[in-house]
Amino acid sequence: MPVLVITGTGTEVGKTVVTAAVAATALAAGRSVAVLKAAQTGVRPDEPGDAEEAARLAGAVTTAEIARYPDPLAPATAARRAGRAPVRPHEVAEAAAKLAAEHDLVLVEGAGGLLVRFDEDGGTLADAAALLSAPVLVVTAAGLGTLNVTELTTRELRSRGLDPVGLVIGSWPAEAGLATRCNVRDLPEVTGVPLLGAVPAGAAGLPPACFRAAAPRWLAPRLDGTWDAAAFREREAG
Questions:
Q1: What is the pLDDT of residues 77-125, one digit of tens each?
Q2: Alpha carbon distance 77, 122 (integer Å)
Q3: What is residue 204's DSSP assignment?
Q4: Which of 15, 37, 68, 103 is catalytic?
Q5: pTM of the entire structure?
Q6: 28, 67, 29, 70: which is closest to 47 by C-alpha?
Q7: Helices marked H in 75-145 — which ranges?
Q8: DSSP three-state, residue 56
């Protein structure tokens, strides 16, 4: 798995913190890691973007961005408003392939959900994943409403011949309500995709050393971690 594409079921579901956790866990396993942000929006030139945030939490990873736009909008819209060239799926694939030649693992983080448009032709992260023949990790929310959007995302991946390698809950609350607890069992059932981890809410606020030490406990062995899906389901879902 030299390249892993990380998408979400929408905005603010925890893609960057999951990317950081995957990176930290891979680093702890002795792998070299690069984080590629396909299109960074809503950040000024002098501000750290998502790739830099992942590196802050994870440690010694190589970071790269293809383009950055100031407005917090979908990349195609942000590029148009800024009067700049959009990101094209082939550029994402080429950048990831170049990084993969020098690293054991390249994490490609998207913007928003799977079908958020990069350009005026409708290019998306899914198109870049197809060019790379890369598996896709889906970051999802924990609570009410997540089943529908997660199933739609995994169905779309399969319709394109892409491999949804697993789901990670991007922000698991300290006290889970009924819907959240039920979703632990229901998410794998409705999607046919295994749950590969759950990152606790507020993880991004941990000191980086604590984040790095804890990250392997949030992710399953498929992602180099020690998280046990069955034990988590038994404990949280009952």
A1: 999 999 999 999 999 999 999 999 999 999 999 998 999 999 999 999 9
A2: 11
A3: G
A4: 37
A5: 0.95
A6: 70
A7: 75-82, 89-100, 125-132
A8: helix
Distance in angstroms (rounded) separating the CA atoms of residues 57 and 19: 10
Classified as helix, coil or strand, 62 is: strand
Task: Write the DSSP symbol of residue 219.
Answer: B
Give the count of beta carbons closer than 10 Å to the beta carbon of residue 175.
6
Q: Is 98 a catalytic residue?
A: no
Letter for the amino acid at 88?
R
CB-side exposure of 28: number of CA atoms within 13 Å?
A: 23
Q: Is 39 helix (H, G, I), strand (E, B) or coil?
A: coil
CA distance 49 to 41: 8
Cα 63 versus chain centre, distance: 15
Question: Is the Cα torsion angle 79, 137, 149, 184 positive or negative in sign?
Answer: negative
Spatial distance between the Cα atoms of 14 and 7, rounded to a whole number of angstroms? 10
Q: What is the spatial distance between Cα 27 and Cα 53, in angstroms, rounded to a whole number?
A: 16
